[in-house]
């Protein structure tokens, strides 16, 4: 394998498996010494060329495998149309161009096994009609959904006559080299000491750098191994769940997405579901029922859109185009803090279409405040700050702050 072949394979893994942006993948490849051009730094077209060539290589390999399969008398998979190997012609026995053909040539020494024989199956697939196959698909799909439930909506009910606080927490990065674990532990103890303060996590609970990640140092210099990171998370969730303070969990790149793409399973999700807690694999739109009020809350680890000038740009975009009736739009991922009350819907409010014209845009911070080697190359350091919103149970009103002392005063039984 040439160096360019290795670069193509690594580029595809960074973008498709690890979920890096093109700019991030280009930087990793450049720092790893794959770029050998005349410029000091590669242009965007360099990475696009690597990805394009990788896909072409895969297509050519698939074409060769299909052609070889036809030459050996094996039926192609449904939907594929293999080309005949050089020196052979494809002949359709019925003369109908849509019929399945075979390659003329010498017969193989042994009768070729069908795909189903190779898979260890018995009988003929033709024994199952369309209705039966689709019923089987639905049955197994239901089993998979029961084992790995995928939620996008739900209602969280808290019966109360006094205000309720929700801490939106993301990017704890437990077990990471640059995570402030002592500060995190002290912070969570203060949270548990405040009555009626709940926690909603928005992803990246652990550091989660898996073996094979292109940045080898990120993997080898995690203070805690992946299995111990997950155990630490289990202990944290156990404390929150024991006090009935945890509302839900959510996937992020570090705490779910990479596991699923590489191994097909998510141990972080398993920790939440084992504790009987909802876990969202992506965006979610929730109804938060607090006393007599119902608040619409849109959450995601990362919404579409980004602005270097506006830390709540993605939330504002989501409010306008995806969740126009939301009272709250909150996301994690960016390792910075922002909290903005937006008066955007007075016309809808006056028309009686919304209980309030206000919407809160929430950007959560991180416990990974560094300074880590990756972040300081082009981004600001992480900010250890997680916002809290106070939901009133009697009237449709929300207050917000990042100061736990203020939150504790607001949540006294006398009310807001």
Indicate the CATH class of the largest domain.
Answer: Alpha Beta
The 3D shape can be described as: globular
Tell me the series of helices and strands, N- to C-terminal: HHHEEHHEEHEHHEHHEEEHEEHEEEH
Strand pairing plus helix content: what structural class? alpha/beta
* Count of individual helical segments: 13
**Termini gap:** 67 Å
CATH architecture of the largest domain: 4-Layer Sandwich
Instruction: Tell me the number of strands.
Output: 14
Looking at this protein, list some descriptive labels:
416 residues; alpha/beta; Purple Acid Phosphatase, chain A, domain 2; 2 domains; six-stranded mixed β-sheet; 13 helices; 36% helix; globular
How is this structure best described in words?
By secondary structure, the chain is α/β, with parallel strands linked by helices. It folds into 2 domains: 3-110, no CATH class; 150-410, 4-Layer Sandwich (Purple Acid Phosphatase, chain A, domain 2). It has 13 helices and 14 strands. The strands form 3 sheets. A 6-stranded mixed beta sheet has the order 3-8-9-10-12-11, with helices on one face. Strand 4 (164-169), helix 6 (181-193) and strand 5 form a beta-alpha-beta unit. Helix 1 runs antiparallel to helix 2, helix 1 crosses helix 3 and helix 2 (22-31) crosses helix 3 (44-71). It is globular and about 75 Å long. Mean pLDDT is 84; it is low at 79-121.
């Amino acid at each position: 394998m040439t160096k360019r072949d290795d670069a193509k394979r690594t580029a595809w893994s960074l973008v498709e498996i690890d979920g890096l942006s093109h700019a991030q993948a280009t930087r990793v490849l450049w720092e790893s010494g794959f770029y050998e051009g005349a410029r000091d730094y590669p242009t965007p077209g360099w990475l696009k060329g690597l990805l394009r060539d990788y896909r072409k290589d895969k297509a050519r390999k698939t074409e060769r495998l299909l052609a070889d399969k036809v030459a050996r008398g094996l039926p192609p998979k449904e939907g594929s149309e293999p080309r005949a190997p050089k020196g052979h012609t494809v002949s359709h026995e019925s003369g109908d161009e849509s019929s399945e053909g075979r390659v003329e040539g010498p017969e193989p020494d042994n009768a070729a096994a069908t795909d189903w024989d190779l898979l260890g199956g018995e009988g003929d697939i033709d024994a199952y009609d369309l209705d039966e196959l689709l019923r089987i698909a639905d049955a197994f799909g239901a089993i998979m959904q029961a084992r790995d439930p995928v939620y996008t909506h739900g209602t969280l009910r808290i019966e109360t006559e006094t205000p309720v606080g929700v801490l939106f927490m993301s990017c704890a990065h437990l077990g990471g080299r640059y995570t402030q674990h002592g500060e995190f532990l002290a912070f969570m103890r203060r949270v548990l000491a405040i009555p009626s303060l709940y926690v909603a996590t928005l992803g990246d609970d652990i550091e989660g750098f898996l073996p094979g990640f292109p940045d080898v140092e990120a993997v080898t210099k995690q203070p805690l191994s992946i299995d111990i990171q997950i155990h630490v998370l289990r202990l944290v969730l156990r404390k929150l769940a024991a006090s009935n303070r945890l509302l839900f969990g959510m996937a992020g790149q570090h705490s779910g997405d990479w596991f699923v793409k590489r191994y097909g399973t998510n141990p972080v999700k398993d920790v939440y579901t084992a504790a009987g807690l909802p876990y969202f694999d992506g965006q979610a739109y929730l109804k938060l029922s607090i006393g007599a009020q119902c608040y619409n809350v849109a959450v995601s680890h990362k919404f579409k859109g980004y602005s270097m000038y506006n830390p709540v740009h993605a939330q504002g975009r989501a409010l306008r185009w995806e969740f126009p009736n939301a009272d709250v739009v909150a996301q994690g991922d960016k390792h910075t803090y922002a909290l903005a009350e937006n008066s955007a819907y007075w016309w809808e409010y006056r028309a009686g279409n919304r209980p309030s014209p206000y919407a809160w845009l929430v950007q959560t911070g991180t416990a990974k405040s560094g300074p880590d080697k990756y972040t300081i190359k082009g981004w600001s350091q992480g900010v250890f700050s997680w916002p809290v919103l106070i939901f009133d149970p009697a009237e449709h009103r929300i207050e917000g702050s990042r100061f736990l002392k203020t939150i504790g005063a607001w949540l006294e039984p006398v009310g807001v």
